[in-house]
Amino acid sequence: MTERLENLGAEVARVQDETLADDRRRASVRRRLLTGSASARPRAPWKSWRPALGFAAACAAAAAVLLSWPSTPEPVGYRVDDGAELNATDEPIVASNDQALSVTFSDDSWIRLTPGSRAHISELTSVGASVTLENGEATVYVRHRKETRWSVQAGPFLVRVTGTRFRVGWSASSQTFELDVFEGNVEARGPKMEGRIVRDGGTMRITLQPEPAPEPTDLDAEPLPPPPSPPVHRSPDPATHADAPSYRPPGPAPAVAPAAKQLEPSRAETSTPEPPEPEVSEESLTDPEPEPTPPALAPAPAAGPTWEELFSEGEHEKALAILGPEQVEEAIWRGDSKDLIDLGAAARRTGDARAGYIYSAVRSRFPGTVAAANAAFLLARMEFHTGRLREAATWMETYLRERPDGRFAREAAGRLVEAYQQVGDESLARIAAERYLARYPNGPHAELARSVLQ
Amino acid sequence: MSWLDRDSEGQLDQEEIVLDNAALVESLVSGDLDARAAFYDAYGGYVERLLARVLGPDPEIEDLLHDVFVEALANIGQLRDPARLKGWLTRMTVFVARGTIRRRRRHRWLIFLPSEELPVQTSSSPPPEALDLLERVYGILRSLRPNHRIAFSLRYIQGMTLSEAAEASGVSLATFKRWLSGSDEAFLKRAERSDYALYETLLETPRWGPRHD
């Protein structure tokens, strides 16, 4: 009988495999898993259950009302970098000029301010927060839930979101608003612009004409006293950060620092004399749904492929060749970690000074990931080859701290011994050598490590 | 292929070329999206097939497939031996399937038309008699106890060995053998009572051919 049942089962499996040949279901789940909806679980519509479910739902709702009455839901809290959880609003959050700053919320949403950016939390509710970006750029990820109300005010522009990932920029000096939506949809409002939906992949760049500076009315008047200054949350000073390695990680080289992009107004925009109210000039406003062509902030060569096309084809060296300063920023904020690592590698191969910047951007955009750790290793390797051994050692330490068992760990540990030895730091070289031998007694740097310890 | 597999710097060791389970698990633990995609691409089809083996034609498979990966990603940090990734995922899949079966049994009083009996839209089109076979076999399996149903599905339909099926079910080999024995008996009894044609064919005429996979 067992054999008969096995044969029956085999036949059932064969028929099932035919029905499973279509991969649309798998593709749909793949999209859900990879677009951040990994916790949401839409159920199949069970129409037949409706009457009974309706009754059960009514009972559940009544019970929920009784149980929850009269308590009110807690507003979300937030942390600035690794600080304590806060519930205060209107406190300035300022990223230092050489380091990005993360703000994580208790509903799993987060904001990452680029170096030099400034923001504050205007409101915290049980279903979200309102954030004001005073100046600079922020990448925002909002975790979608049943009810989510998030907004980001950037100058006079308001971006409303329910669950998405996007980058928003506001330059107070040039009155320029920028928005790149990576996932989901957002609604943007601003001067002369009623709610405009910007979808996944859409971008928007708007520069307002500057308003005339107000004439001073009374030059002799006493200046107003400054308002009491609330506590300011700043990027941790790498030199004093508790979690720093034996010496602080090097900031990216000046040419490659992931600093906030300066959004300078064009000459034509600034030369317009005194408009009655802010004018909106849409330099770039794209939305992928009505227009199938990919959004492009960067002007591509007339006949050649865009950097996005080159990225998708893996032609990172060619992409690098056509990326100007603005476009490289665009690419860095739009590319995924794989693209950026490859772009950085292409930059290294061609001797492009932007390699370090690109790797730094990986660390800034994808903090805590394997890609970020590997970017630290690649930065270390770059520094090592250019003879900046102290900096190389610090990046190696960073990598080893973030990925002690990572696939580059052995090489990082070995290069660390080399770096400390070559700069003549005997004590650190010995520590590194002991660590190396304890972990890799037969590794390629074992002989060097033993010689250091003799 | 992951970017890590590529020799982007020209200096990577041979051991860095292959994205093995250990590296995959490490990347998953760190929340790497590329790793998540690689994980799903490697095992999505297998999990979907396993769910179909246990549950049969079911409108909820897509959601359950999603659930299995959500569970797996949430708990990947607890996987101690990355080499056992597939077995671990198999066990999780069986766990999710069993939970679904039990949930439905608990909620039977709510059901006017069991959800499993709702017509399932299949995109491909096996011959009607083949689909009829599925309906008849799973019609009987749905009436069995969850453990019997799982034992039957893993052993006979998925074609696992006894020890593989026991491990996937999270029970000892002896327990699984007991389940299987119970499932054989229950399946035949139910077939005799509700689908005599299937019962007779199963007993008398070996019309089903050898295993294809």
Provide tags for this entry.
heterodimer, A: 454 residues, alpha+beta, Jelly Rolls, Serine Threonine Protein Phosphatase 5, Tetratricopeptide repeat, 14 helices, 15 strands, B: mainly alpha, Rna Polymerase Sigma Factor, Chain: A, 2 domains, 9 helices, 63% helix, elongated, disordered N terminus
Structure in a nutshell:
The complex is a heterodimer of chains A (454) and B (213). Chain A is α+β, with helices and mostly antiparallel strands and 454 residues long.
The pLDDT mean of chain A sits at: 70
Q: Total number of β-strand segments of chain A?
A: 15
Distance between the termini of chain A: 73 Å
CATH class of the domain at 304-453 in chain A: Mainly Alpha
Shape of chain A: globular
Poorly predicted regions of chain A are 42-49, 211-230, 236-302
CATH superfamily of the domain at 304-453 in chain A: Tetratricopeptide repeat domain
Shape of chain B: elongated
Helix content of chain A: 25-40%
β-strand percent of chain B reads under 5%
CATH architecture of the domain at 304-453 in chain A: Alpha Horseshoe
How many angstroms separate the termini of chain B?
27 Å
Task: Explain how this protein is built.
The complex is a heterodimer of chains A (454) and B (213). By secondary structure, chain A is an alpha+beta fold. Among the domains of chain A are: 78-208, Jelly Rolls, CATH 2.60.120.1440; 304-453, Tetratricopeptide repeat domain (Serine Threonine Protein Phosphatase 5, Tetratricopeptide repeat). Chain A has 14 helices and 15 strands. The longest helix of chain A is centred in the N-terminal third of the chain and has 19 residues, at 50-68. Chain A is globular, with a radius of gyration of 27 Å. The model of chain A is unreliable at 42-49, 211-230 and 236-302 (pLDDT under 50). Chain B has two domains: 1-120, RNA polymerase sigma factor, region 2, helix turn helix motif (Rna Polymerase Sigma Factor, Chain: A, Orthogonal Bundle); 122-213, Winged helix-like DNA-binding domain superfamily/Winged helix DNA-binding domain (Arc Repressor Mutant, subunit A, Orthogonal Bundle), CATH 1.10.10. Helix content of chain B is 63%, strand content 0%. Chain B is built from nine helices and no strands. Chain B has helices spanning 21-29, 33-55, 61-75, 85-106, 128-141, 146-157, 162-169, 173-194, 196-204. In chain B, helix 3 (61-75) packs across helix 4 (85-106) and helix 6 (146-157) packs across helix 8. At the A-B interface, helix 1, helix 2, helix 3, helix 8 and helix 10 of A face helix 1, helix 2, helix 3, helix 5 and helix 6 of B.
